[in-house]
Amino acid sequence: MLDVFSRSVGLRLAAGAAVLLAGAGLGMPAAQAAPEGTGALLAHVDQPAGWGDWSRAAIVDYRTEGPTGGLVDSAGLVLLPDSPAPTGGYPIVAWDHGTSGLGPQCGITTTKAAHDRPLLQAFLDRGWAVVAPDYVGLSPNSRTVHPYLHTRTEATATVDLVKAARSAVPALSNTWAVVGSSQGGHAALATGNLATGYAPDLDFRGTVAMAPESNYENILAQVGPQVPNLPMVDRLTGPFAGMLAGLRATRPDLDVNGHLSEPGRTLVDAISTACVQDFDKLSAGMSLGSILAKPMADNGIGTGLRDYMVAPTAGYQEPVLITHGATDTVVPIPMTFALLSQLRAAGTRVEFEMYSVSHEEIEEASRDRVLTFVDGLLRA
């Protein structure tokens, strides 16, 4: 989830997580159909060869759901293999990227997917096209804050980009799968849960989530001003402020500002326009407790956070693969063990692979397993 955590933060939080997560409710499937107008293509701009070191790249502007409903404009990348399109078109892998921030300068179209290149190039080398959403609010000229870790709009932004990309590029097949890591693992799970019911005209095949964020909402929903200043935990403050900024934008009916201290409101406002590399600087010297004036449990704020970012566990219609690092301290492995229990209790078909690596190393460590799994999905 949160690539700015110190390595010790996750371990400290995870120490008490097992009891808290054992009683956590199951994420419910997001089965709503697509509102009219979502996935509409607004613009398609081919980029010159070599843009971001990609040989065939384009930026697609499209319509998708906003954080409070209705339609907003968003953008994403389309990357094509150098090989000719096969009969029926290039199969599609939708890529959901990890935490990049909340501001309109933080999306994958701005970074040209530089941080994601090794895995995306491996997809292209297999003859698969890649589509990669910025997520809502992360594209240049966005008019809404990014609803960070919001389950619904992560999913709709991904599916709607697949729809728009197929309108823009006739060489794309309607067969697709979704892969994501960290925040993107959370987004991939949300997408895989939503995909078939939201876009039944597309041939969705399955989901890969690497080190997906899950179950943090069940811990954070219980914190309050009483949480002491603990250096090993305080680097969670910036990402937590990002979640609250997204919740505030998505649920205006909840009094998020009323639960924040004055320094907390200042931080949440600042995080709302910042990229991830600035989270530590903005939250320096602050703790979880210092940004809150009231407990998260008061007045439905904690419940609202759970609804906002819970990873769905029931209702998947296609296969799911989760990979995770045993030494991950960003999303500690107990979080995913809890998620697996929740998925299996809900009857979800899920495969799991664990590697002796950290959060940052999971994409490389599990690459061969992911490629084999996705190849089986797209060939089925």
Describe, in plain words, how this protein is organized in 3D.
The protein is of the alpha/beta class. It has 2 domains: 41-215 and 313-379, Alpha/Beta hydrolase fold, catalytic domain (Rossmann fold); 217-308. Helices cover 35% and strands 17% of the residues. The chain contains 14 helices and 9 strands. A 9-stranded mixed β-sheet has the order 1-2-3-5-4-6-7-8-9, sandwiched between helices. Helix 5 (151-168) crosses helix 6 (183-198) and helix 8 (237-250) packs across helix 9. The radius of gyration is 19 Å and the shape is globular. Mean pLDDT is 91; it is low at 1-30. Residues 1-33 form the signal peptide. It holds the Pfam family LIP.
Per DSSP, the total helix count is: 14
The amount of helix comes to 25-40%
What is the CATH architecture annotation of the largest domain? 3-Layer(aba) Sandwich
Which of globular, elongated, flat, extended, rod-shaped describes the shape? globular
Order of helices and strands: HHEEEEHHEHEHEHHHHHEHEHH
CATH class descriptor name of the largest domain: Alpha Beta
What is the domain tally?
A: 2
Main sheet properties: 9 strands, mixed
Number of strands: 9
Beta strand %: 15-25%
* Main β-sheet, spatial strand arrangement: 1-2-3-5-4-6-7-8-9
CATH superfamily placement of the largest domain: Alpha/Beta hydrolase fold, catalytic domain
Measured distance between first and last alpha carbons: 31 Å
Radius of gyration in whole Å, from Cα? 19 Å
Query: How is the CATH topology of the largest domain named?
Result: Rossmann fold
